[in-house]
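Weekly modeling sync, notes
Attendees: AB, CL, MP (scribe)

Item 1: holo prediction request
CL wants a bound-state model with zinc ion before deciding which constructs to order. AB pointed out that an apo prediction alone won't tell us much about the pocket. Agreed to run with the ligand included and paste results into these notes for async review.

Input as submitted:
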Amino acid sequence: MNKPRSSEIKCGACNGTGFPPVRQPKPGRRIYPAPCRKCGGKGRVIERE
Ligand SMILES: [Zn+2]
């Protein structure tokens, strides 16, 4: 069994959602945050050794 060189893990910055947690400023008004900078909006990051 060969170990993969890298593995994808859930992004801790956005908790796997692809977007960082944001506070909704006003109820009923949706805001669209920028994709997570750490994972680029994928929700997963490559774990390097
Ligand atoms: Zn992320």
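Recorded for review: The radius of gyration is 14 Å.
Action items: CL to compare against the apo run; MP to circulate these notes.
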